[in-house]
Amino acid sequence: MTFLQLLYEFFKTGLFSVGGGLATLPFLYEMSTKHPDWFTSADIADMIAISESTPGAIGINMSTYAGFKTAGIPGGILASLALALPSVIIILIIARFLAKFRDSKLVKGAFYGLRPASIAMISAAGLNVAKIALVNMDALTSAAGLGEFFIWKALILAVLIFIGLRKLKWSPIIFIALSALVGILFRF
Amino acid sequence: MKELLELYWTFVKIGCVTFGGGYAMLPILERELADKRHWTTLDELQDYFAIGQCTPGIIALNVSTFIGEKRHGVKGAIAATTGFLSGPILIILIIALFLTNFAQNPLVQHAFAGIRVCVCVLILQAVLRLWKKSVVDPFTFGLYLAVFILHAFSGLLPFRAPAALLVILSGIAGIAAAAVKNRNSGKAGNSR
């Protein structure tokens, strides 16, 4: 029974959360009141912290964690697959549709507008990460003042990565690993 | 079978380095899938991202499904998607089994403060790469600004503009603008 309930709840979450991992949060909070034995809102807060420090979107991480807590390792795997299933089905349908209509005027026109909108949202996401990683937003309101606003060592690292990405033909994965190392060595 | 395994394994690797909500993935996907394997192009990747934003589910996952489908139909989509999920599931299971207070560990916190800096730069890189191809005239520039302001500063606005709604409206605006452009260029003869 628990398996079916897990499947149902996470399938529903996967179906209705549009626009990235954080969109699953309202559904997760709802689930924590409906099934307090699965996980609590404090667990969600912990999972947000863990999700920021592990790969994968919060929705996947939370479903793995909740599934594991309720039904062990099989539960963790099942809940994650349930979350992914609706989007896989929908994307398969869209992919078929796109293959047929890629050259239609309507689809071309839609992408003429979708592309700049897509970059705008990517930019906004970048701004959100930069607000945490590169600057100290608290300095704006505290007495510390603007001298503390920029996190200088982070800015220096950012410039180095930017130059590195352009000049060296290394995989971005290497830069991620190096950044983790620099973060530990220089106590970011 | 060999190709399905290759799809699976490629996305296992990509799934293990997807930090920061999937957007930082674009330079990684471009390198691994477009440059190295020629499975897709930057243009297609961008279209997948745009669609992923207005369909349910996690964007990075949607992109995996798209590329898997393109390579090998439904089987390919399943191989790519489960590959993408494998790393994150395994990592959370290990954390849940063995590590308490993982996120509070200072070493972990320092490492991820460093990774976040890299994620910023990767996202900037993605924006710069896509900009040239997509922001090509006053209409697309205006649309970029409008969506950016509505999305990035939604906390300061008196109303909420959900991302999915913005994407759908942008698609409609694109269809309208393309129609107007076509009609104008039709009137001007075949000069363009």
Short description:
By secondary structure, chain A is mainly α. Chain A has seven helices and no strands.
Notes on the structure:
Chain A is an all-alpha fold and 188 residues long. Chain A has two domains: 100 residues, no CATH class; 81 residues, no CATH class. Helices cover 74% and strands 0% of the residues of chain A. In chain A, helix 6 runs antiparallel to helix 7. The longest helix of chain A has 44 residues. Chain A is globular. Chain B has 192 residues and is mainly α. Chain B folds into two domains: 132 residues, no CATH class; 58 residues. In chain B, helix 6 runs antiparallel to helix 7. The chains are: A mainly alpha (188), B mainly alpha (192).
Ordered list of secondary-structure elements with their pairings:
The complex is a heterodimer of chains A (188) and B (192).
Chain A: H1 2-16, H2 25-34, H3 41-52, H4 58-101, H5 105-133, H6 152-167, H7 172-185
Chain B: H1 2-16, H2 25-36, H3 42-54, H4 59-98, H5 106-134, H6 138-152, H7 163-187
Helix pairs in contact in B: 1-4, 3-4, 3-7, 6-7
Structural class of chain B: mainly alpha
The total of helices of chain A stands at 7
The tally of strands of chain A reads 0
Q: What does the largest sheet of chain B look like?
A: none
* Rg of chain A, Å, rounded: 21 Å
Labels describing this entry:
heterodimer, A: 188 residues, mainly alpha, 2 domains, 7 helices, 0% strand, globular, B: 192 residues
